[in-house]
Amino acid sequence: MHELLARAAIDSLGDVPVLRLQGSPQFRVHMISKRAFDLVMTSVLLVVLSPVMLLTAPRAEPVDETAPAVRTQGFDNTFADLDGLFQALEQATVSGDADRMRSLAVSEEEFRDLVWPTLDIAKLPNSGFTWEFVWSQHQLKHEKCLMRTSHDLAGREIDIVDITFEGRTTDHGSFKIHRDSRVEVLRADGTTGELALFGSLLETADGRYKIYSFIND
After folding, report:
1. Contact assessment for residue 153 and residue 93, using Cβ atoms and an 8 Å cutoff
2. Rounded Cα–Cα distance for residues 142 and 134 (Å)
C-alpha cells in the first residue's frame, strides 16, 4: 500500500482533487493532456496580452539628432568699442594669425542660432533654403578672403584710424550689420591708405562689436 501511494500523484480537475497512479496509462494520458492544455493557454495569453503590453510599455522619446544640444544665447568675443576690436584685428593681421582673425568674426553657431532666424530668406515659406546651405556659401567666400588678408598683411604694421561703410545697414532687432567697409590705416612709414581688411561689421543692440565677415570683394 505504501509503495502504491509513493507512485501516486494528486491533480485537480476544477475544484475536485483526483488521485492518479504514476506510471499507469491513465496517468500518462492525463499528464500529456495537461501539458498540451498549458501550452495552448500560454499561447492564447501571449496573443491576447501582447498588444496590451506593447501599448502600456514605456516608450523612449524620439531623439532629433539634427537639433543642437545647446543653442547660442548671445554673440561671443565682442568688444565694447571699435578701438578694442581694431586693436585685436591689427595684432592678428601683423602676425598673420588666421585663427585669431577667424575668432573675431561670427561663428557657425552664432549664424545658425542668432543670425539665420532674422534673415528674410529664412522667413520665406517654401524657399527651399536651409541655414546649412547659406552658411556654406558664406563660409567659402569668408574663408578665402580671410586667408588672403592674413597672408597679404602679415608682417605689415598698421594702425586703423577710421572706418566708413558704403553698403547698406540692416537692422535685425538685437543687432545691426554694417556692410561694405572701407578702413583707413596709418602705416609704419607714416603714410596713410585705404585697405579692405574685412567686409561687414556686426553691432549688437547694447553697443558691442564684432566682425560679421571678412568677405571684401
Report:
1. yes
2. 12
Angle, alpha carbons 111-130-102 (nearest 5°): 30
> pLDDT tens digits for 82-93?
999 999 999 999
CATH number of 82-213: 3.10.450
- Determine the Cα–Cα distance for residues 47 and 53; give it in Å rounded to an integer: 10
Contact 177, 170 (CB under 8 A): yes
Residues 124 and 68: beta-carbon distance below 8 Å:
no
Q: Left (φ > 0), alpha (ψ -120 to 50) or beta: where does 121 sit?
A: alpha
pTM of the model: 0.67
Per-domain residue ranges of the chain: 2-55, 82-213
179 closest CA partner among 212, 134, 136: 212
Q: Supply 48's cell numbers.
A: 491576447
Cell of 9: 500523484
